[in-house]
Amino acid sequence: MDINFVIEKFILVTILFAISLVIAMYSTYAERKVAAFLQDRLGPDRAGPFGILQPLADGVKMFMKEEIVPATSNKWLFMVGPGLAMLCACIGTAVIPWGQDLTIAGKTVPLQVTDINVGVLYIFGVVSLGVYGVMIGGWASNNKYSLLSAIRAASQNISYEVAMGLSIIALLLVTNSLSLKEIVAQQHSWHWNVLYQPLGFIIFMVCSFAETNRAPFDLPECETELIGGYHTEYSSMKLGFYLFAEYINMFVSSTVMVTLYFGGYNYPGMDWVAAHVAPNAAALIGTGIFFIKIFMFIFFFMWVRWTIPRFRYDQLMNLGWKGLIPLAIVNIIITGIWIALRQF
């Protein structure tokens, strides 16, 4: 194996891991600032200018707090749960194409950890595994509220993964590819998939809220019924891992939506910049625009949380099974008919 290839991928993985952690950390700050703005408050403003150091203060607090492990819990699984949740949240970025290939010292450097030809299936597999961290933590706590929360999370994820998968089938009919890099390449300039699959995008986005346990689908963390939810018994950085995993999942969900439906790193005029300025400049600008799109979706996640009240559990299930799944099936049929008519 080429040692330069290993070093290159190690550097890229390290950078992506650091970016994921920093975005998750400052998403907690942005969440509180957005909530304060919508409620005509100030939000964090003590730690540093405009409270910009508040996430660092929160991180230090998490590390310094006493770690309590319930005497009746399953000790080993109690530790595995948050670690698994964090791991599954982080590895989803491995197949995301963050930009066009760079040319450094005559060598082509792809801004993607790996381009597997089933990248969409990889994302779905990672999303499906994430619920195990919640289930293990809820069960290992030996707390009835944590267990009920874990059961809710599992049933919610299973229900909405069906509709999410069906919405992707319609997209795959249009793109004829499971490779995320190829899907992004097909959306060159303004040819974004959201223009061809608006209903599929709406279904996928709603399911993303449910998959990440974000309001109004945050039933597993319903404080009025379940105290703190599946992480009720957790403290110190184990609790921090669960909270960080939620924000990383929000970041990854936003990234996947931008990749599949909003052109990824593509932007109008990319070819002109590559031809008249420099190919590397066009690639780096594309990566910057990619992150701007992602931050817009993260803001939308936060906006919805502080605007729409939480659903009841029966409403959650009815929407998934009786609303989104039939809509997704109808979308597949309409897409199939549209593609068939285009061939004549």
**Nearest-angstrom radius of gyration?**
21 Å
Head-to-tail CA distance between termini: 49 Å
Q: What does the largest sheet look like?
A: 2 strands, antiparallel
Would you report the number of β strands?
Answer: 2
- The stretches of 5 or more residues where confidence is low (pLDDT under 50) are none
Q: What share of residues is helical?
A: 55-70%
Assembly state of the chains shown: single chain
Q: How many helices in DSSP terms?
A: 12
Taken together, the total number of domains comes to 1
Give the neighbour order of strands across the main sheet: 1-2
Order of secondary-structure elements? HHHEEHHHHHHHHH
Beta-strand fraction estimate: under 5%
Mean pLDDT: 89
State the secondary-structure class.
mainly alpha
Description of the structure:
- This protein has helices spanning 3-38, 54-64, 75-90, 119-140, 144-175, 180-185, 198-211, 223-226, 236-261, 270-276, 279-305, 313-342; strands spanning 102-104, 107-109.
- The chain is mostly helical and 344 residues long.
- It has one domain.
- This is NADH-quinone oxidoreductase subunit H.
- Keywords: Cell membrane, Membrane, NAD, Oxidoreductase, Quinone, Translocase, Transmembrane, Transmembrane helix, Ubiquinone.
- InterPro entries: NADH_UbQ_OxRdtase_su1/FPO (IPR001694), NADH_UbQ_OxRdtase_su1_CS (IPR018086).
